[in-house]
Amino acid sequence: MDTERQCAPEQSTESKPEGKARGADINYGIDDNPPWYFCIMMALQHYLTMIGAIVSIPFILTPALCMRDEDPARGTIISTMIFVTGLITYLQATWGCRLPLVQGGTISFLVPTLAILNLPQWKCPPADAIDAMTDTDRTELWQVRMRELSGAIAVAAVTQLVLGFSGLVGKLLRIITPLTIVPTVALVGITLFQHASETASKQWGIAVGTTAMLTLFSQVMGEVPFPGIAYRKGHGLRVVWFPLFKLFPVLLTIAIMWTVCGVLTATGVFPEGHPARTDVRLRVLQDAEWFRVPYPGQFGLPTVSLAGVLGMLAGVLACTVESISYYPTIAQMCAAPPPPLHAINRGIGIEGLGTMLAGLWGSGNGTNTFGENVGAIGVTKVGSRRVIQWAALIMVLQGVLNKFGAAFIMIPDPVVGGIFCVMFGMITAFGLAALQYVDLRSSRNLYILGVSFFFPLVLCLWLQEHPGAIQTGNQTVDSTLSVLLGTTILVGGVLGCVLDNLIPGTPEERGLVAWSKEMALETAQDNDDLPAGGLAWEKSTFDFPYGMQLMRRWKWTRYVPFLPTYRMKL
Question: Where do the TM regions start and end (predicted)?
Fold first, then answer.
């Protein structure tokens, strides 16, 4: 038996793209096609990484929908999220920006969702009143709220569609500066801290243990190799070493702490009904159907209100900015050239389409680029688009297995609370990372930063405690203002954007010089000696998989912002 230390099998003998110089240590570049068995193995890894990120969303969403813990529909919502994630991931990787990214549910939409459901007409009745309802009434109780969210998400996503396919993304980035991004993204994690506290406090020992174990695996043992056995034709069995703790820290933590809770349940340490018991939601798994294909409008025809749509716009804009910031990083990690403007336009447009479909399907959430899967590419050095397409297929198939989604609902609440403490903290830190571009010695920047962080928290907390405070005489206007002013990421983002663009400051001070280098939008020069698709080295990476020869014959396609033949003067 041979012993090797590696993270992936030997590279394919296929030719590599010219952009390979950008990622010399990559095992498989964006246009490479690894062997099918290796694709499946890497696709499973991306799937498991995605599950670790998406499973937490229903733990905040479903209680706000007035859904009981043991309701089997909670598993249906998770399965719907996984199913839609698979559909949009395939569209994005194949026809969208064509980068190897996973597009799925996001925490960013929870902030406006909770603001909408905090309106007087959507607040949940007392628990004893819910218990006294019939099964039909309880189902309608949460479905009417889901229909409100579905309509709001689907209509708000039209804005993202227009931004992407019209080419307005480039103009949007001229006013969205680092001091706009910092409060918009960071306030997502800060706003949700109360939910992390409520969930973790159900058993602090388990919650703290979960946070400590996740920290140990992801930060301390990330580089520790783990042995595994692989078979290679002609060479027999061999031992391969791979970074298990760096690849799956969330899943390992959940599995171990879930097992600990199971042992404490079996030994009677946790009494009957304790939220840390592993059997407290056993009925969800028992009552869930084995197979169920999610479909648009499965919870009824979506409803639309002005307050809901405008509130969800905050989540849409936050996700747009976040995804754009990921594109250059992903391209560099998978040995691809910098994404041209048409690819970014198309990526945002497809993300908008994904958010619309997620709303219509009834996931209660939108879509965004998964940062966790971006990290997986950096660890494995496998940036192949084909791997992501296989992962999308696995997601679609698993989304049909309703029992599978129901199993994740059984994770004990304190374990989820411990994960929240890390996850929400990382979202906050990701937003704060944009401060690296600005001059923090500037009193101007510190003033903008302080106001755009503190004022939204004060205003939104006051509105939560006084839900009927806004009285204009018109219920629609009251609801709209309550949602808009009660959404921290919207108030903070608007404040940061307005103040940064109005208060005088040099480009260097505001971070615009460094930011423009990071977010450079590549386009083809308008020279007749260049092909209509732009620079020769970007053709094979960001072109459509089919129809390019015909598209290049039509000169009008050079003026369509989302087509690979698009050209714009710099």
Answer: 35-61, 73-93, 149-169, 175-193, 247-270, 299-321, 390-411, 417-438, 445-464, 484-503
